[in-house]
Amino acid sequence: MKTLVDRIAALGAPLKKYPLAYRGIGLVVALIAYSAGVLLVDSLTHIGFLVVLVALYFLPAVLRAWLLFYWQLREELSAWRGRRSGKAF
Questions:
Q1: How confident is the model at residue 74, as a pLDDT?
Q2: DSSP secondary structure code for residue 86 in this structure
Q3: Which of 25, 30, 40, 46 could form a disulfide with 65 if both were Cys (CB 3.0 to 4.6 A apart)?
Q4: What is the per-residue pLDDT for 87?
Q5: CA torsion sign, 61 to 65 to 71 to 75?
Q6: Which among 89, 80, 84, 74 is positioned nearest to 23, based on CA atoms?
Q7: DSSP label at 15?
Q8: Measuring CA to CA, which residue among 9, 15, 19, 30 is closest to residue 38?
Q9: Neighbours of 30 (CB within 10 A)
């Protein structure tokens, strides 16, 4: 019997072939979750200070998703340039 973790991993398996798309979707999901969380806190509590605290607390997760996307893009571009010029490194 497959566990829930195995089923979720199987859903992402086709995207593993395209790491840039995989990271891009991760970035979009992180941005949506971040925005939804801030809007949820804002709608539940109308305290501006608390909204700012929540936004600042979860900002590193969004920055991490952006950096993973950027590093993957940079790695793929440098590999593409290397293949195009014929250099090994």
A1: 87
A2: T
A3: 30
A4: 58
A5: positive
A6: 74
A7: G
A8: 30
A9: 19
Q: Which two tokens stand for residue 25?
A: 């979707």
pLDDT of residue 58: 87
6 CA to centre of own chain = 20
C-alpha span between 17 and 20 (Å, rounded): 9
Single-letter residue type at 69: F
Q: Report the alpha-carbon distance of residue 53 to residue 87 in Å, rounded.
A: 49
Q: Pull the structure tokens for residue 77.
A: 């571009």
Encode the chain (89 residues) as per-residue pLDDT tens digits.
577 777 767 777 777 777 777 778 888 888 898 899 888 888 888 888 888 888 888 888 888 888 888 888 888 878 777 766 665 55
Q: In whole angstroms, what is the distance from residue 73 CA to residue 54 CA?
A: 29
